[in-house]
């Protein structure tokens, strides 16, 4: 596979996911977590995947990155810059994905190695992928920490993850993700567990870096505000399915799917809309036998504003 050939294909979407299914083998049987998901991310676009906790957002992101655990079964088609990646050997896939896309994972502390300095974790990327010497790679690590707004980067580069604050760890993860200047950055809840000020700073940083580097961003979040503020296009996930997709304004202004009252209210107040869902603990159970339509109907008893038509409205999976 020739990476430079792929870089010439300016018109193909950077990411094309078609009919993606992910299930996990468990003692109780197979659990289908992602069902028939299809969407495309254009080059340079910001695409948000939003959905409540447990709807399968991180699983979908990990399936794209090839980071699922051993009990996962993935079917469908994932194309990165025109190259189908599910059929690649693990080695070829690692190489392509390492060069072309990067993930900022949901838990910054768990994603960083506690036994190695942050600087070395950034430098390692250059040493492995670019064959740089340790000294040169550490210099690049200092530059990246500075680019992501970490103060005193020459000093901080020698610190361990536990010596960083939550916001700084998130920046360190962003620095690692940006090291190889990927075409696609997948940011899985990049602002979870951060206070409002740091959250705003991280989002601003992502948007600044996105325009500086011209990369596409796939942002995964349960926060409609983050999706609305950052994205050009948006996909709503519910119980493993894509239930709505389109330009952000359309999703908020002309809600087409089950939670129409909630989405309509989003236009007035995104914060108030979140209260519509009664209890995240009463998430529909997913079984092998459960059909999509039944999963969707399960929404009805979870929302105070559900109407009769929430039950009857049903759609085939959508393609963004
Ligand atoms: N390795 C696994 N084995 C079995 N089930 C799993 C595994 N990984 C994830 N799941 C299940 O998949 C479902 C979706 O999890 P996922 O982490 O994708 O949700 P999410 O939408 O990212 O939620 P959150 O917003 O809380 O991060 C959960 O019910 C979870 O228990
Ligand atoms: Mg998640």
UniProtKB/TrEMBL annotation:
It is a peripheral membrane protein. Keywords: ATP-binding, Cell inner membrane, Cell membrane, Membrane, Nucleotide-binding, Transport. One of its GO terms (cellular component) is plasma membrane. It is found in: Cell inner membrane. Residues 17-264 form the ABC transporter domain. The keyword Acyltransferase does not apply. It holds the Pfam family ABC_tran. Its main location: membrane. InterPro entries: AAA+_ATPase (IPR003593), ABC_Ni/Peptide_Import (IPR050388), ABC_transporter-like_ATP-bd (IPR003439), ABC_transporter-like_CS (IPR017871), P-loop_NTPase (IPR027417). Signal peptide: none annotated. SMART domains: AAA. GO terms for molecular function: ATP binding; ATP hydrolysis activity. Belongs to the ABC transporter superfamily. This is WGS project CAFE00000000 data, contig bkir_c65. It comes from Candidatus Paraburkholderia kirkii UZHbot1.
């Amino acid at each position: 596979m020739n990476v430079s050939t792929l870089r010439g294909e300016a018109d193909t979407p950077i990411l094309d996911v078609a009919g993606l299914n992910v299930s996990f083998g468990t003692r109780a049987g197979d659990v289908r977590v992602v069902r028939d998901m299809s969407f495309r991310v254009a080059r340079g676009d910001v695409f948000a995947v939003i959905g409540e906790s447990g709807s399968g957002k991180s699983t979908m992101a990990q399936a794209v990155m090839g980071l699922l655990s051993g009990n996962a079964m993935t079917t469908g088609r994932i194309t990165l810059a025109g190259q189908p990646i599910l059929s690649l050997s693990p080695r070829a896939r690692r190489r392509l994905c390492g060069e072309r896309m990067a993930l900022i994972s949901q838990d910054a502390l768990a994603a960083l190695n506690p036994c190695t300095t942050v600087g070395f974790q950034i430098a390692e990327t250059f040493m492995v992928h670019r064959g740089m010497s340790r000294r040169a790679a550490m210099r690049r690590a200092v530059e990246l920490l500075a680019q992501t707004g970490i103060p005193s980067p020459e000093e901080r580069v020698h610190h361990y993850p536990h010596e960083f604050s939550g916001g700084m760890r998130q920046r360190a993860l962003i620095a690692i993700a940006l090291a190889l200047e990927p075409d696609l950055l997948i940011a899985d809840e990049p602002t979870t567990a951060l206070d409002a000020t740091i959250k705003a700073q991280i989002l601003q940083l992502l948007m600044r870096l996105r325009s500086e580097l011209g990369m596409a961003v796939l942002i995964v979040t349960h926060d409609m505000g983050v999706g609305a503020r950052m994205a050009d296009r948006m996909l709503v996930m519910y119980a493993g399915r894509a239930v709505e997709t389109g330009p952000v304004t359309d999703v908020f202004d002309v809600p087409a799917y089950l939670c129409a009252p909630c989405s309509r209210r989003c236009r007035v107040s995104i914060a108030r809309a979140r209260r519509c869902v009664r209890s995240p603990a009463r998430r529909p159970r997913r079984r092998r036998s459960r059909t999509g339509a039944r999963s969707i109907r399960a929404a009805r008893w979870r929302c105070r504003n559900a109407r009769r038509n929430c039950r009857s409205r049903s759609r085939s999976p959508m393609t963004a």
